[in-house]
Write a structure and sequence with these properties.
Layout lengths: L7 H19 L3 H7 L3 H12 L3 H16 L3 H12 L3 H19 L2 H9 L5 H13 L3 H22 L1
Helix pairs in contact: 1-4, 3-4, 5-6, 6-7, 6-9, 8-9
Length: about 160
């Protein structure tokens, strides 16, 4: 069966959707962009956009990014962005697993051995330092900040072992 060409309206909707995806990419930090493994030309265009101070230059650059996006399959990029935002089921599951590890590590000393066995590449000294910080925190804001820092540390350790 012969595929019909897209109408001009559909082409415009697709171009605007890709441009919106490109705008979302421009809001990411360089480390997050690196995780996406984008084509060099697109990564360079995004870096230029982030560097431009002028509103008009950014507008033109965003159109260029949208044009570059038309040559790509946007599905892998959209999936990776969903994961970064924590919307995918896999990302939510991973988030809950890290939370469980954090709770276990804060409550039970033997969990440290389990964690280091499961993730042998984790920074042992750094993990012990983070745990010590959580235990030494006296006020509630200090405890929350130390707990968040421990979560970030665990997330990094889990990702490095993948």
């Amino acid at each position: 069966m012969e595929e019909l060409p897209l109408s001009k309206s559909e082409q415009k909707r697709r171009a605007l959707r890709l441009q919106a995806l490109g705008r979302e990419l421009t809001e990411l930090k360089p480390a997050q962009l690196y995780q996406l493994t984008l084509p060099d030309q697109l990564a360079s265009a995004i870096a230029d956009y982030q560097r431009f101070p002028s509103r008009e230059a950014r507008r033109r650059q965003l159109q260029f990014i949208g044009r570059l996006m038309r040559d790509l399959n946007p599905e892998p990029i959209e999936f990776a962005l969903e994961s970064m935002r924590g919307k995918s089921a896999e990302a939510r599951y991973e988030h809950h697993q890290i939370e469980r590890w954090r709770e276990r590590l804060m409550e039970a000393p033997e969990a440290l051995t389990e964690f280091l066995t499961k993730f042998p590449d984790a920074d042992r000294q750094g993990l012990r330092h983070q745990l010590r910080s959580v235990r030494k925190a006296k006020t509630e804001p200090e405890r929350k900040a130390a707990s968040r820092a421990l979560f970030r540390f665990l997330k990094t350790a889990v990702h490095e072992s993948d």
